[in-house]
Fold this protein.
Amino acid sequence: MVLAPLPEPIDLLLVDDEPDFLEPACRFFQRQGYRVVAAANAEQAISVQSSQHFHVAIIDQNMPGMNGLDLLTRLHRDDPELKIIMLTGGGSIGSAVEAMKRGAIDYLSKPFGLDDLDTLVRRLARAVSLERENIHLKRQLADQNRPKPLIGNSAGIQEVKRLIGRIAPSDKPVLILGESGTGKELVARAIHAQSELADRPLVVINCAALPESLLESELFGYEKGAFTGAVDAKPGLFEIADGGTLFIDEFGELAGGLQAKLLRVLEDGSMRRIGSTKERKVKVRLIAATNRDLNQEVSAGRFREDLYYRVNVLSISIPPLRERLEDIPLLVHHWLGEDWKLGKGVAELFQSCRWPGNVRQLVNALERAKILSDNKCIEVENLPAEVRDT
């Protein structure tokens, strides 16, 4: 009987000295979709494992020469990720227990049918598939969290890089200033990556993306029953970032009530969840970013002066793209890669554009142009109207 397809290709090592079992088992598992290698003894198994990776191994306990338990020990030592099933004699519970101690995932006592053995192997195949997915997701997460480079050799960007190196080792709050699209989150991630907190959490939130009530619950968390819909307690981002860094983007959008609560966290290192009277201690490095002139906001009464001075201990100003036009060729090369080129007039157009959306606008224009262009060449007509009509 052929069962459902395997979730992933599985390399299977079969080790048994009995041809009456080994040959039909090999054919059976090949029909099920496994990539099978058969070994008639322990020495053959060790030899093939030295040159090929296997996901699952099935080992008979009773073999001449090196027995199955000793082979299990050797294979598990050489590849701790290998999932091993031990085939034991009927009623041999002691051997099964010993096999599990030495690293076997499961065992099967003789006599058994190949369908029974396939059930065990398929369970391990699903585990292999989940492990692969977990590794893939971890790599994706690592790629997402890995700080992207600050592209540019202009004096303005060189100064930003210098300040990042000076500021990162400190645990003091940082205020990043710059227009929308200049790369404030990029700078925040670079500061975290170069700090002593690099192996701790970096938690990011954008104030402009959430209404005040939801922003408060995201930052400070809430207890069960604190408000309609709070069916369970939830920690806030300050708790999640404890021991690490909290990056608050669009910091100038904070409402007055939240400004007061945030000031208290910075001054006392303590906070309360919504609906709780319990003080919770948190140690978080705050990095804030804004495209507003907070001095003007303070003068206008829209931003607390004490919070401004508490956050503005260390600051970095990112120049807009129109003030570092010499960086545009490097940015274009970085985002397009080696295979793409610019058509007639495009480079000159990039230099004449004011780029109100800064690097984000440039990147979006390039992404759009790549989709619309032919032969990996960006032409003027491929660019958005706001760039073409500069």
Q: What stands out?
A: The chain has a mean pLDDT of 90. The first helix runs from residue 19 to 31. DSSP finds 16 helices and 16 strands in the chain.
